[in-house]
Design a protein that fits this description.
The chain contains 19 helices and 23 strands. The chain is of the alpha+beta class.
């Protein structure tokens, strides 16, 4: 071995690959190593001889005594096995082995935590995306009660509407008569939803209540026909959100009644509920130009914050550091996983923080990060990324503040979040969200396109596309392993399976289609601001002309001030439509 100058375990990796040793036997406890190694010794020796340096040692010359040569070769192979396994064990305990050679098309990754992921335990039944609750909109801000509201979930078009009693209902967005969209219909004075094509009306449970084209004698018989009913989904309002069930099967009502939506458990835990100071949705709802999977991968990755969110939450030059991750709940198909993470800060200022945060993923879309501050208070940020269609998702974020056990409160600015912002109008908080969200947007959108392109080109999975050697990447691995076990979303077969073209930055940073047009609060604010801007411009013109005519310095200055005010209002108006961001300009 000394003569061969074996300094890297990649030589062993190549030999094991070419000796065709089963992959399951490449990572084993030392107590079983020799039992598994011995049957492959003879196959390993000539393969390993291809390295070159060991060929004179492993291949005896014709004049050697046969027994002596076999004994010498066996001893050398055994010595090699001990050294290789020792190297292997040391690297394996570090959490990852990367075995790469330029003749192989795939990279073998072993990235599981040795304590929790040593063996592939039973994770429970495969998660069923159709039998789950999804948050679709903030009722007070995103839904117009006077008309039908178009939604999309798991690639299917839906329509949400409120009846005369104030209850919200969700149908699949097609009329049973001629399959036109019910979202183009009307909510009538009697509280029913009317299809604007032929005037059929529907009650909240999907029953048809009127068919204008039916003869009087036939009407009741047609009303009783199940084919005349709209496809109603279970739906309910909870904590200000409209929740929609993933299907409209005959058993959907019963199955949905047995499942609760994913919400912070503190809201219903009487032992800690009194410590909640606020639970709100400061950033509203937003449609993002990437899929739920890469969206969840982004928020599950704690390490990116120190770099990507430069000048908002961190400093890219001083804050990047190792991240220590410890899983506190093993991954299951039904409940996802939970882990603690701690940033191993390098700067004295950051070392003073030294806080442990807890991150949790619960399928299908729930993700939360809870940070306990030094005074005992805690801040929780919840993100739901709802799969709307392939390559697109809807983000709904909320924030939970809790006092410490003795009433300790969170500071005004905790972890970069302005926690006391209740005085701001909701529309202001909504248009400010892109200052933070768009720092991730360009990365995650193009990451999705690159991954999809690699998969189409060479069949590469995330294991081949990523090289993730650090402990900070364990959360990414945990998420992808969960997705792999559960097979991803079974999108509707009617959806085209095409390569999504990356958006240019003009469309990528379009805030109007992502949020404004879908938010009643922001749409109303935009109309009012546009009116104010026009009034200021007109007033500035009139006052300026009058000042020049009358040679009034005061009127001229007043007109100039109004014109500047109109310019400021115009800038605010522009934020409802587009907010571009470039990391190159973020000094």
């Amino acid at each position: 071995l000394a003569q061969a100058q074996v300094s890297k375990p990649c030589i062993m990796a190549r030999a094991l690959q070419r000796a065709s040793i089963p992959e399951a036997n490449r990572s084993v406890p030392l107590s079983r190593a020799f039992a598994q190694f011995a049957p492959h010794a003879q196959a390993l020796a000539p393969r390993f001889a291809e390295v070159g340096h060991l060929k004179p040692l492993l291949l005896p010359s014709a004049g050697d005594d046969e027994g002596r040569s076999v004994q010498f070769s066996s001893a050398l192979v055994l010595a090699f096995g001990v050294c290789a396994l020792a190297l292997h064990g040391r690297r394996h305990r570090a959490g990852r082995i990367c075995m790469r050679h330029n003749t192989f098309t795939e990279e073998v990754l072993e990235v599981e935590d040795g304590r929790l992921e040593a063996e592939d335990h039973d994770r429970g039944e495969i998660f069923n995306w159709k039998k789950a609750w999804y948050p679709m909109a903030l009722v007070a801000e995103n839904l117009d009660p006077s008309r039908p509201n178009k939604l999309q979930l798991l690639g299917e078009d839906l329509v949400a509407w409120r009846d005369g009693q104030g209850d919200w209902h969700v149908f699949e967005d097609h009329c049973p008569h001629r399959s036109v969209p019910l979202s183009e219909g009307r909510i009538e004075a009697d509280g029913n939803l009317m299809c604007s094509y032929h005037g059929w009306k529907f009650a909240g449970d999907g029953r048809v209540t009127d068919i204008p084209q039916a003869r009087h004698g036939d009407l009741q018989r047609l009303l009783d026909n199940r084919r005349a009913c709209a496809a109603a989904r279970p739906a309910k309002v909870k904590e200000g959100l409209l929740w929609v069930w993933g299907e409209s099967s005959p058993d959907a009502a019963l199955e949905s009644a047995l499942v609760e939506p994913n919400l912070p458990e503190e809201l219903y835990d009487e032992s800690v509920r009194h410590r909640i100071t606020s639970y709100d949705y400061p950033w509203g709802m937003r449609d993002v130009p990437y899929g739920w999977d890469v969206a969840l991968e982004n928020v599950t990755d704690a390490a990116h914050v120190a770099v990507a969110h430069h000048n908002t939450l961190a400093n890219r030059y001083t804050d990047p550091c190792p991240v220590e991750i410890k899983f506190v709940r093993r991954s299951t198909n039904k409940d996802g996983f939970k882990f603690q993470f701690r940033n191993k800060w390098k700067t004295p200022e950051r070392l003073e923080e030294d806080m442990v945060s807890e991150m949790e993923f619960r399928p299908p879309s729930y993700h939360r990060v809870t940070t306990k501050l030094k005074n005992g208070a805690s801040l929780t940020v919840v993100n739901n990324f709802v799969p709307t269609k392939p390559g697109r998702a809807r983000q709904i974020s909320s924030k939970l503040l809790m006092t410490g056990p003795n009433g300790e409160r969170a500071p005004t600015n905790a972890l970069g979040y302005k926690v006391k912002e209740g005085w701001l109008p909701n529309w202001v908080r909504h248009i400010l969200q892109p200052f933070f969200v768009h720092q991730d947007l360009v990365f995650v959108h193009h990451q999705q396109a690159i991954l999809q392109s690699k998969e189409r080109k060479s069949g590469a999975t995330w294991k081949q596309s990523y090289w993730i050697p650090c402990e900070a990447d364990k959360s990414t691995v945990a998420l992808h392993k969960w997705i792999d076990r559960n097979g991803g979303i079974g999108w509707s077969p009617s959806l085209p399976s095409i390569l999504l073209e990356p958006l240019d930055k003009t469309r990528l940073f379009d805030t109007y289609s992502a949020h404004t047009e879908k938010c009643v609060t922001c749409s109303t604010a935009l109309k009012n601001i546009s009116r104010v801007q026009r009034v200021l411009k007109y007033s500035a013109f009139v006052l300026g002309v009058a000042g020049v005519s009358a040679r009034s310095y005061t009127a001229i200055v007043g007109g100039a001030a109004l014109y500047l005010g109109a310019g400021v209002v115009s800038k605010v108006e522009g934020l409802f439509h587009r907010y571009p961001f470039n990391h190159q300009d973020n000094k």
